[in-house]
What does this fold into?
Amino acid sequence: MTIRAPRLFQAALWLPCLLILSLFITFTCALSPRKPRLSVLGHNKERNRIYSPSLIASDSNNNDYQTFYYDQTLDHFNYQPVSYTTFQQRYVVNFKHWRGARTGAPIFAYMGEESSLDDDVGTIGFMPENSRRFGALELYIEHRYYGKSIPHGFTGEESLENATIRGYLNSAQAIADYAEIIIYLKKNLSADSSPVIVVGGSYGGMLAAWFRLKYPHIAMGALASSAPILYFDDIVPQNSYDVVVTKDFQDVSRSCYDTVKRSWPEIDRVAAKPNGLSELSKKFKTCKPIKKASELKDYLEYLYSVVAQYDSPPDHPVTTVCKGIDGGANGTDILGRIFSGVIAYYGESRKCYDLNDFFSTDKLSAWDWQTCSELVSPFGRGNETMFQASPFDYNEYKDSCMKKFGVEPRPHWATAYYGGQHIKMILKRFGSNIIFTNGLRDPYSNSGVLENISDTILAVYTKEGSHCLDIVPATADDPKWLTAQRNKTVKVIKWWFHKYYNDLRGFA
It folds into this structure.
């Protein structure tokens, strides 16, 4: 059931609704090298199997979640006529475990990322698990221009084709949206004393951390899982992502790593032969003929990045791929072994392999716009990884964005608006109550916060963990190190609540 409640919080809110599962959208630069999704589940087929709807939030039912639409302001920062335009922004509430406003029971607010809200509700195990633990309300807010939260009168693609309307899609507007909805919800629930913890993973984790810094009067704390907030403005080396991918493969099998590294020039060599592209198409059983070597190389690079980013138990996909590569029959050539790794990942049931399997075919994507305007991550590398050199060239990046959207990127804006340079020195002085969680097998971890900045800005990481593993649903088979990471996070939040309620009593 869907209820539209632009400004009036209706009594029907107390009736529960629907649990939904999902996959997330792609985090890619507008230019090569492409990187896997900044998402909780991504393409990891085993992780998607484990967190199916029947297994997530088993203590919930179809009456626990309810959808609402808020009459959101299009432009929070100007007073031009178009600024007063509104659109319907979707959010979902679950009251099952909430102990109510009288007790000042907390609110966990999930910061929607570059995806439909359908991809969040029921997928983020941290939310129902800790709402139950702390007697909290669950709130999920959809990011503007994704899912159903599209400017009035437009489809998603139409909003991106309109040069004026797409200008209102940025992270600052998004977190201002979240602020309005949280304030509105607390007011209508008479929950002024309820502390808010904002939660997010990947890009959503960045938003959660930034929200705490920009709106400390609204959010008492933030959990930012696998948030690469330092992959801007050359704060970290451009090759940070691929260095970790390479290490993940080296840790599993040195011979697998060597085979991958030697495969790139071999692909080029075969492609240069007469009928070489046809030979590659047959060897890799592609669904469509390969037109240029870069198609195959992009596909393989993305596959290796995906399995590294989501190299989590119980499947450990890097190990799966390397077993395929190392296990080729005697006499199998380099490319034959590489294809054995592809088969090992997907299984042997496929009749052919689609080289566009990982890539969106949409003409325009909202994330392309965000990375072409404000969120410029300079992915690049030299010869120090298992991939071929592909340095970041800002002029090429700019030309690509100009061709697609007619705008030049603002490569320094993210650090100018949110900070990032000298983060330890600066946040120690004015920041507080943020937990940055990471798994060091996640290639994005190299651009996350990996050491404590102060007593209240903390880094909680595991050597074995992968992308956002700490906020997906807990299972009986979780390793001890993962459980320990989650328990440490909960312990910190519990202390935040303890101090908050003590302070609240002191001001009463």
